[in-house]
Amino acid sequence: MKIGLFGGTFNPIHIGHLALAENVTASLGLDMMFLIPSKIPPHKSGSGIIDPVKRLKMVELVAEGLGEKFKVSDYEIAADGVSYTLKTLKHFRRLYPDDEIFFACGTDIFASIHKWHAYEELFKYANFVVVSRSMVSFGKMLEAIPERLHDIVIREEQFAGEKSGRVILHEMPPVDVSSTDIREVLEASYRKANLPDVVYEYISEKGLYRGDE
Ligand code: ATP
Fold first, then answer.
1. Pocket of ligand 1 (CB under 6 A)
2. Which atom of ligand 1 is nearest to the CA of 177?
3. Disulfide engineering: 36 pairs with which of 2, 7, 124, 171, CB 3.0-4.6 Å?
4. Membrane-spanning residues where (predicted)?
């Protein structure tokens, strides 16, 4: 099987996240795609990050409309301590020892891969699928990462079915949206912005992102 993992703060989940999840799932022919909200992202400061249980709930509401390949994992939110990706990859490798695993992320995130906890070990457990985001081109991302990683970077059409160890560059039409922009819009004027309907309904109902949390 081909198993996709898509981790994020999802603060809140938006149409750019959906585009990535759906596009990667279709293009790589994934059998399952797990959306994995993180509890305490190691690379982000704690401020402005709302309660993990509410972020998880919004991801669940969105996943309900995505079809049966899409699953939500509370592994990081339920675990103790910081959400290290290494721990998550080891967990999914234990669940799927013989399968191809793909961890999806944007170029902005992968550009600092060498700052992640024990980053060289990550590739033992999964492939990475890196999606172009307008603020960081593939070229800029490649310049930012250690040169020795360039050997494992391939274009999607070169992928030969490895279970782990590759960094696959995945092109998709850019969806120029971020949670930061959405939080700003919500704080200023409480409009739906680029949110899925169910997420905006939940945010309105609970009065989230009003700037007073
Ligand atoms: P923030 O603005 O709060 O930093 P974000 O919008 O970047 O958040 P995250 O939850 O931090 O969202 O991102 C989770 C993952 O989704 C990352 O790998 C990120 O690169 C990717 N991602 C986020 N927005 C988009 C988008 N519009 N298009 C493609 N990938 C995206």
1. 8-11, 16-17, 20, 105-106, 108-109, 131, 133, 175, 177-180
2. 27
3. 7
4. none
205-213 contact pairs (CB < 8 A, 24+): 206/54, 208/12, 208/50, 208/54, 209/12, 209/50, 209/183, 210/186, 211/187, 213/50
Using CA positions, which residue lies closest to atom 30 of ligand 1?
Answer: 106
For the chain, the average pLDDT equals 94
156 alpha carbon – ligand 1 mean position (Å): 21
CATH 3.40.50.720 fits 2-206, yes or no: no
Q: Determine the distance separating the centroid of ligand 1 and the alpha carbon of 8, expressed in angstroms.
A: 7
Query: How far is it, in rounded angstroms, from Cα 109 to Cα 96?
Result: 25
Q: Can you tell me which atom of ligand 1 is nearest the CA of 13?
A: 10
What are the residue ranges spanned by the domains of the chain? 2-206
State both tokens at 66. 């995505």
Q: Burial, 152: exposed, middle or buried (Cβ in 10 Å; 0-12, 13-18, 19+)?
A: middle
133 alpha carbon to ligand 1 midpoint, in Å? Answer: 9
Q: Is the ipTM of this complex over 0.95?
A: yes
- Burial-class residue 45 by CB neighbours within 10 Å (0-12, 13-18, 19+): exposed
Tokens of 35: 């959306």
